[in-house]
Amino acid sequence: MTVALVYLGLPVLLLAVYLHTPVVWAAAVLLVVALVFAASSRHSPDRSETPRGSISLRWSQVAAIVVLALALATVGGAAGIVDPPWDWNKHNALLHDLTTMPWPVAYEGLANASLVYSFGLHLPAAAVGKVAGGSVVVAHAALLLWIALGFAVLLTLLSGFFDRGRRALWAAVVLVAFGGADLLGAVAVSGDAVPSEWWMMSDDVVLQYSGNVTALCWVPQHAIPSWLIGVLFVRAWPQGQWREGRALLFAVGLSALWSPFAAMGGAVLLGALLLRFAVQRVPLRWRSLWVEVCLGSAVLPVALFLSLTGGGQELSTTGIGVQGYVLFLAVEIGLWVVMALFAGRYRAALVPVLLVLLVLPFLRLGEYNDLAMRASLPALMALNVLAWVGAVRGTAPPNRPVGRIALTVVSIAAVALSVPTWSSEFDRVVGQPPAYEQPWDETVPAFLERLNSSPSIWAQYLVCPQGPAARLLALEACRGTVDAPAPGEPQP
């Protein structure tokens, strides 16, 4: 668990190097203090000391996790070993500029506009490439290893929910075999048996709940922190220990530089967990809360930095009707919820998870509704874990084999119906020709221009810093205005 928090926190520490201002350096020191003392039982927020839960793995299982993590990072498109998904155009451009340009990145040809983005995934790899003389190749290799490390930490945490002998195996199943029955949704809506996660898409409604493989291939910057939050939430739910809540609090706060959507979705789960502890009157050692104060102070510069981003769109409703709403939930999560009902002592965690997943279909933010796609990821991972705990360690009575058989059938159906969608991501691995150009030497402005992005998209990356936050972070003001090209048709 401590390793997961250090993993999420390293980019926040590097932000001090990126901005190199006294305020951010002071915040970095506070974060180191918070991480060190959070791992100490002496400063635990729990009054009664109970043994920490540990995850023991054999060397063969550790090796299997490492190999699988590297394989998933490779299949996802890191380092370009296989043809990456389209979104890697963005990752490549961010990594190029963070590696080859002085920190903080500013573009003289665009009125000295600053790069302000949630680049927590990219910052450690860019730092390695910068140390290697600004080598983009080294940065891409480092990014592959950095993503693989995140998957390895996640697989290790997942393995703790299952019996010792098959922990690594079930962790792999949980991470890969999760997704909606999109083929059924496509048939119901259009009559075409074409699996696509965008089956619920029209002029009024844009909805998608991403499967795990899709998320790890396209948006690892959202997926990794969201999944760690989801796993830590389920792990903490039945424990009744404030230190487990502290771990989730740290994960939510540190994930903002990776993905604000992960922090948003995780904050709801964190609130539900803290409310549960308060209702249960779990004893709390108040004097230990100075560690949380250090964390809050440490992540304040991240909030100030991200507050400078522009191009924001107003939150609206999707306009989904009752029939579409019921169909969407049934297709995306229906079978998984049935499996999660058998999760024993973890089952009550399903309530806040469903609260998130039942509300998000009504909300829309952005052209492709990134709010529903990305803020749902922590709750989807929590549902995923609960479902597999129910399937593997289910509470169906042994003297009622019919119940066990029914649960097995539901589990097989949930996996089988999700396979057509997420298995298509592996088509890139088996010799399919590249579908589009994936340059490693392209800057963020060049990428946006090639995409023919709208001004609102430009403003999500390039900012003219102004106001108290910009002055506190010592970001230089623009020399003029940033004029984005008029949007047109995206180029391949």
Topology overview:
Layout: H1 2-19, H2 22-38, H3 59-75, H4 88-100, E1 106-107, E2 113-115, H5 123-131, H6 136-159, H7 167-176, H8 182-190, H9 212-218, H10 220-236, H11 242-254, H12 260-279, H13 290-306, E3 316-317, H14 322-340, H15 350-359, E4 363-364, H16 370-375, H17 377-392, H18 401-422, H19 444-451, H20 455-458, E5 462-463, H21 468-472
Antiparallel strand pairs: 1-2, 2-5, 3-4
Give the ordered list of helices and strands. HHHHEEHHHHHHHHHEHHEHHHHHEH
Radius of gyration: 22 Å
What structural category characterises the helix and strand content? mainly alpha
Q: If you average the pLDDT, what whole number results?
A: 86
Strand segment count: 5
Strand order of the largest sheet: 1-2-5
Q: State the shape.
A: globular
Give the helix proportion (percent range).
55-70%
Main pleated sheet: 3 strands, antiparallel
Termini, distance in Å? 42 Å
Task: Please state roughly what percent of the residues sit in beta strands, choosing from under 5%, 5-15%, 15-25%, 25-35%, 35-45% or over 45%.
Answer: under 5%
